[in-house]
Amino acid sequence: MKTMPLSVKVNGETKEWSIAPGDLLLDVLRREGYFGVKRGCEKGECGACTVLLDGKPVNSCLVFAAQVEGRAILTIEGLAPANGLDPLQKAFLDHGAVQCGFCTPGMILTAKALLDRKPHPTEAEVRDAMAGNYCRCTGYKKPVEAVLAVAEQKNGASRRPKAGTLCR
Ligand code: FES
Ligand code: FES
Fold first, then answer.
1. Sign of dihedral through CA atoms 145, 146, 148, 149?
2. Does the beta carbon of 48 lie inside 6 Å of ligand 1?
3. What is the per-residue pLDDT for 156?
4. Nearest ligand 2 atom, CA 99
5. Whose atoms come closest to the Cα of 143: which ligand?
């Protein structure tokens, strides 16, 4: 089988892999152990395979691995800090937005991209951003609440006066 080299940054680490020209990114990531990238419909419809490619959500089942040469990928495995959870992961747990968890990595990565681009989205904007992530368990109310809660935390932090600006 014909192979080609692939150099890509995954979760901040440079990876050098050998791929076939027709390999899908979904297949390569799972083959390399990134099992948070879920195999769902494989047609670009469910969002379970979502990863961030240079900060933007993509369905990895629709991307050839060869297309990501030299680019940066974030999977759910790379989201949390070394000891703890990302605020979105914590909010999903706190709001009961996870049942089987199959859709959760994709939802959280989509939400991260949204909040990075737009820290204070409206509920409609959250629903619109997550429209491509299907959940067969919880529905969408709780995930949307979780994302809005993180946005609200950020909002509170940005409205808090800087140290030294009170009591003068
Ligand atoms: S598995 Fe890629 S969108 Fe469903
Ligand atoms: S939590 Fe099961 S598919 Fe969403």
1. positive
2. yes
3. 73
4. 1
5. 2
Collapsing DSSP to helix, strand or coil, 61 comes out as: helix
- Which two three-digit tokens encode residue 52? 């961030």
Tokens of 168: 């003068």
User: Ligand 2, closest atom to CA 98?
Assistant: 1
Closest CA to 51 of 42, 64, 41, 38: 38
Ligand 1 contacts CB of residue 41 (under 6 A): yes
Q: What residues contact residue 136 under an 8 Å CB cut-off, 6+ apart?
A: 100, 102, 103
As given in the structure block, the two tokens for residue 13 are 């680490």
**Within a 10 A sphere around the Cβ of 106, how many other Cβ atoms?**
28
SS3 of 89, please?
Answer: helix
Question: Given the CA of residue 100, which atom of ligand 2 is nearest to it?
Answer: 2
Stretches in the chain below the pLDDT threshold 70:
157-168
pLDDT at res. 164? 45
The helix/strand/coil state of 72 is strand
Query: What is the reported pLDDT for 158?
Result: 62
Strand partners, 56: 53
